[in-house]
């Protein structure tokens, strides 16, 4: 393992920002630290970088304990959310900064900066200053500057937070491709799950200073291993009286259930599909989401959200519909269980 955290604890006053944090990362992977605000993501990054010391626990990089090695000697590149570029320096000088500090010779610096300018597609902008750049360009300069001294590990703290939505999407793809090309082990912090799912090889979910789950985006999405992960990932709604739904029995261990929109299919009442496994519902609201419709449904006293493709027959607010729930996540304080609609197997009646 290239990066290892073992039993890390960190308190700020009375607040436990890291609570027995342990994980390991393989060389060359791009890892997303994902969690709500205040869950301890940045604290982990800062301890890895050497900007903060853990109260207890070990940090290993490439098999070597680095707890007592100062930040400047850890060989780590850092990209912050607010660019943190030197305002009075040109793009070229910003990128060259780390190499100047290392007292590399002029010819090497020129060659290395030019290489990074090409990699980050900043050709022609070398003599501009930060205020003459767009947000996306500034962030690419920050990225090039972090990579210039050939770090072994790259840490990115909410790298796209200050950038507008469309450019952010482009930059995500760009970052993933560029990091793959360079092959550097990288960890980025985000509270945006779309960003984590799109970019990361593996996601580490943080909550109240603890690690909730580690896995590939698909693993985390399909098999959330904790109640928090089940509720946090994806669009999800919690219901209490899930035992009243067709095909689901109340389970004495679990008080609540999570339903995701992808677990639900909606059809017109005159097109009953699986009548013994479905609920009768009514459409409360419809939102156009660009590539689909988001339906807000009422079934009895329960509110659900479902998606509907633009290709499907249009539905309107007030329409009575059949609502088929394929599966649910049941959870309590400690565990989560995926259950399928039991009536689906026995219900062969399809009326169209
Ligand atoms: N230097 C500090 N002094 C005191 N408290 C701190 C310090 N740094 C962080 N904290 C506290 O530790 C907790 C975790 O903070 P951290 O920045 O790691 O969370 P985060 O998950 O990165 O949140 P965000 O997404 O809002 O940046 C927060 O409650 C924060 O207020």
TrEMBL record:
It is an enzyme of class 7 (translocase). One of its GO terms (molecular function) is ABC-type sulfate transporter activity. The keyword Transferase does not apply. Residues 3-233 form the ABC transporter domain. It comes from the Bacteria. Its EC number is 7.6.2.9. SUPFAM superfamilies: MOP-like (SSF50331), P-loop containing nucleoside triphosphate hydrolases (SSF52540). Pfam families: ABC_tran, TOBE_2. GO terms for cellular component: ATP-binding cassette (ABC) transporter complex. Keywords: ATP-binding, Nucleotide-binding, Sulfate transport, Translocase, Transport. PROSITE patterns: ABC_TRANSPORTER_1, ABC_TRANSPORTER_2. This is ABC-type quaternary amine transporter. It comes from Aminipila butyrica. The lineage of its organism: Bacteria, Bacillati, Bacillota, Clostridia, Peptostreptococcales.
